[in-house]
Design goal:
With 221 residues, the protein is α+β, with helices and mostly antiparallel strands. It is built from four helices and ten strands, in the order βαβββββααββββα. 23% of the residues lie in helices and 25% in strands. The longest helix is centred in the middle third of the chain and has 17 residues, at 96-112.
Length: 221
C-alpha cells in the first residue's frame, strides 16, 4: 500500500478547503491516491453536525461556519496545525475507531518529542495535558473515505476559545505546544507529526516531508 501524498497548503480559508475535501471524496475512483493535507486557517468557528447554538457564547467578528463533521463547536486560527487525512478506509483496513485512536496516538507521540506528556480520552475525543485540551479530533466518513481531521494548538491566540464551550464542554481550558516547552513553528511540528501519523495508521513512511511539497491552492484541487 502506497504512502499518502503529503501536502503543505499553508494558510488557507476554511470554506474552500472544506469544499475541496468534499470534491475529492465525490470524484475519487478506487485507485485514487490517499492524501494528507497540513495547513492552518484564518480565524473561524466551526459547528459540527451535533452542535448546539448555546455553546456559542459571543463570537464577535469571527465567522461561524456550519459543517458536516461530527462533534460540537471548535475554533481554528493562525498558529494551529490542522491536518486532514483524506483516506480510503476500506483499502487501508481502518475502521472509524482505529482512525481516531491512531490520530490521537500520533499526536501523543509527537509532543512527547518535547517532553510533553499527553493522553487521548475516550470520554471526550481529543488529546489532553492534564485537564487542558491540546488537540481536537473531528471526522466525517462518506463513501468509505475520511475527511476533516485534527487540530493541534501550536502557537496561537487561545482567547477565542473562551467565546465558546469548546467541543461542548463549558469551562474547558485549552493549551498549546509552545506554552508547554515545544516549538512555535508549525512546519517543524508538521514534520515530526507526519511520519508518526502514517505509522499509527499503518502506512509506510512517505518519501517526502510534510512541508517539502509545493503549496497548492485548494481551489485548483
Amino acid at each position: 500500500m502506497d504512502a499518502p501524498v503529503l501536502r503543505w497548503l499553508g494558510r488557507v480559508d476554511y470554506e474552500p478547503t472544506w469544499r475541496a475535501m468534499q470534491r475529492m471524496v465525490d470524484e475519487r475512483g478506487p485507485g485514487a491516491r490517499d492524501e494528507v493535507w497540513f495547513l492552518e486557517h484564518p480565524p473561524v468557528f466551526t459547528l459540527g453536525m451535533n452542535s448546539k447554538p448555546e455553546h456559542l457564547l459571543g463570537t464577535g467578528d469571527i465567522p461561524v461556519v456550519q459543517i458536516d463533521r461530527g462533534g460540537q463547536v471548535t475554533y481554528h486560527g493562525p498558529g494551529q496545525l490542522v491536518v486532514y487525512p483524506l483516506l480510503d478506509l476500506e483499502r487501508a483496513g481502518l475502521g472509524v475507531r482505529a482512525l481516531v485512536e491512531g490520530i490521537e496516538r500520533a499526536i501523543v507521540a509527537t509532543v512527547a518529542e518535547w517532553g510533553i506528556e499527553a493522553i487521548g480520552r475516550r470520554d471526550a475525543l481529543g488529546v489532553y495535558v492534564g485537564p487542558r485540551k491540546l488537540a481536537s479530533v473531528g471526522l466525517r466518513i462518506r463513501k468509505g473515505c475520511s475527511y476533516h481531521g485534527l487540530a493541534l494548538n501550536v502557537a496561537m491566540d487561545l482567547e477565542p476559545f473562551r467565546r465558546i464551550n469548546p467541543c461542548g464542554y463549558a469551562g474547558l481550558e485549552m493549551t498549546q505546544v509552545s506554552d508547554l516547552g515545544g516549538p512555535a513553528d508549525l512546519g517543524a511540528v508538521a514534520d515530526v507529526l507526519a511520519p508518526r501519523l502514517l505509522a499509527a495508521l499503518g502506512f509506510p513512511d512517505a518519501p517526502q516531508s510534510a512541508t517539502s511539497t509545493w503549496r497548492q491552492e485548494v481551489s485548483s484541487m
